[in-house]
Amino acid sequence: MSFIETHISVLVVIVPLIAAPFCILLRNSVTAWAWATVVCLVTMALAVQLLQQVWLGGTISYDLGNWPGPWGIVYRVDELGAFVVLIVAALAAIVLPYAKTSIEREIPKERHYLVYCMLLLCIAGLLGMAVTSDAFNLFVFLEISSLATYVLVGIGQDRRALTAALRYLILGTLGATFYVIGIGMLYQMTGSLNMTDLATLLPAVQDTRTVHAALAFIVVGFGLKLAMFPLHFWLPNAYTFAPSAVTVFLAATATKVAIYSLIRLIFTVFGDIEPLETYNLRFAVIILAVAGMFAGSLMAIFQTNIKRMLAYSSVAQVGYMILGISIGNALAMAGGIIHMFNHALMKGALFMVMGCVMYMLGSVKLEDMAGLGKRMPFTAAAFVAGGFSLIGVPLTVGFVSKFYLVQGALLAGWWPIALLIMLSSLLAIIYVWRVVEMMYFRSPAIGHGQMTEAPMTLLIPTYVLLAAVFWFGIDATFTGDLAMAAAESLLGGSK
Amino acid sequence: MTGMRRKIVLRVVSKLLIPFILLFGLYVQWHGDFGPGGGFQAGVIFAAGFVLYGLIFGLGTLREALPSWLTRVVLVLGVLLYAGVGVVTMLMGGNFLGYNVLGATPQGGQHIGIVLIEFGVGMTVFAAVMTIFCAFAGRAAADVNPVDDIGGDNG
């Protein structure tokens, strides 16, 4: 095996991690950006290689420092892990080319290199969360990515971003603390932090109060991190006031990786216990998921700031993912997993559109978008296309996710859930339509009649992502097969 | 803060103490291999000497001794030293941070690896503590641009 093949699972993490400090040394806006972009493209190539190796050769295990598990830290990448690595790396590789123009407009020049440094650290943290098989190492990477995120949210010129970042910091730290308390309890009961080792040791102590409490702490902790309704209060402000490029990256990746970690903990660490069955949690989680789907969509309808509207829509979309993993059959699970990828594509594209609007108008308020269909035709069209996917129109990725979810719900015999999925899509039509109506059927304010389109450096990445929205909406074999394989191995492991 | 410059006792005592604080920091750093200690503690102790200097003689004097570009470089080099050791072990045939391959014997390799990465930790912790201290201490003077202490050349 070549050097890269042997070390692939650790390389995806350390390449951005080692590259990040170099941005501090470069200190020039353009060179730091160029460096970060090259690093992200390399990471993307490594992620593709990792996925190929996992797909062809099965799960990859890597002992850090040559210390074998359960004593040392082990990285263990299966189909799901490799899929999440690909989501993060791919979105990073698309956001970075986009980021330059957007960041130049929104962030003071002397802070640019810090943005790129923090972005790389955030990417390294998220990728680390996806590959690690050590419960405490997961916490460390969670903190690396979170700390970078708090900085990124607050780094712009908008003073309100500071309050949003502080709130995110407090709630995020609470979440991480809850998680580490839960892990502490598991360690107390089993003496191990290695996930596969924990999985074999936990069934012996599954009926103790400590393990119950540990599970509660872990679920609530990650519930905060992934903005599971009703723990989502940090999310709308953080997404609204963060710089556009930062919002694109966070909305597309951060919550997905937290969901991945929760899946990992429930279905791998607690896998043999089947906590959703044993502790009668399934119904409670489904109710929260459905409540999130509706509450998020309803709140989205009443927003006048479109970034905030999309942020509330994210709360609803997280509901779909949680629903998918809680129904309990492979189809629904695959729906939840595939929606992580699909939502990353479409929400990334939509927030990129908002970045274009912000660049040209300096505002993302609904009333400022009047007549945008005439003034910025390509940007407006991109929003419509992304909106279609959010609703779940066929030929878009949104349809694929919902197709899997509905099938899974029907297979489990939960037809009311299937109905609720359709109903919540109707709410998506309402909030997307409000924007479309404003863009195409209102005349622009006086003096704003001339056509001014966003620069190509913003539009091209947006359209690349949109192309992916339709590509994987029309031909879902790649994502579908991968998600099914991941779902079956997750649920198979719990039997 | 400037008022303290006139307190002769503080000035003399701190000048006497600072070399020993720094020496103790270095001891904790390099003795961490054999006894209690290590990079994190050493970095904080070493930084404490500079913090004391800054408290007594003022931020400007501290910045002359320790310009912000220097803390920034040390901050970065510490991280790179740690990760660099990992990369070197990979290139020498081990796994990431597998120190065994660094020395003639596995035990010797572990010694070399630990000493190196702990030095990296020490550098970064020292620079981080100094950055945080200077950022807060310089806040009253330079509230116009809070990032200046990390980003600006003269703090």
What does this structure look like?
The complex is a heterodimer of chains A (495) and B (155). Chain A has 495 residues and is an all-alpha fold. Chain A has a domain at 280-495. Chain A has helices at residues 3-26, 29-57, 79-106, 112-131, 135-154, 160-190, 195-201, 209-225, 235-241, 244-269, 275-278, 282-301, 306-327, 330-361, 372-375, 377-391, 397-411, 415-441, 456-474, 477-492; strands at residues 60-63, 74-77. Chain A has a two-stranded antiparallel ribbon. The longest helix of chain A has 32 residues, at 330-361. Chain A starts with a helix and ends with a helix. The mean pLDDT of chain A is 91. Chain B is mainly alpha-helical and 155 residues long. Chain B has six helices and no strands. Chain B has helices at residues 8-31, 39-57, 59-65, 68-91, 106-137, 148-151. In chain B, helix 1 (8-31) runs antiparallel to helix 2 (39-57) and helix 4 runs antiparallel to helix 5. The longest helix of chain B has 32 residues, at 106-137. Classes of the chains: A mainly alpha (495), B mainly alpha (155).
Q: Which word captures the global form of chain A?
A: globular
- Helical fraction of chain B equals over 70%
Sketch the topology of chain A as an H/E string, one letter per element: HHEEHHHHHHHHHHHHHHHHHH
The pair of chains with the biggest contact is:
A-B, 20 and 24 residues
Oligomer: heterodimer
What fraction of the residues of chain A are assigned to beta strands by DSSP? under 5%
On the 0 to 100 scale, the average pLDDT of chain A is: 91
Helix content of chain A: over 70%
Number of domains of chain B: 1
What does the average pLDDT of chain B come to? 85
Give the termini separation of chain A: 34 Å
Detail the poorly predicted runs of chain B.
Answer: 143-155
Tally the beta strands of chain B.
0
Number of helices of chain A: 20
What are the secondary-structure elements of chain B, in order, as H or E? HHHHHH
The general outline of chain B is elongated
Give the distance, in angstroms, between the N- and C-terminal Cα atoms of chain B.
17 Å
Strand order of the largest sheet of chain A: 1-2
Q: Sheet with the most strands of chain A? A: 2 strands, antiparallel
| Residue share in β-strands of chain B | under 5%
Over the alpha carbons, how many angstroms does the gyration radius of chain B reach? Answer: 18 Å
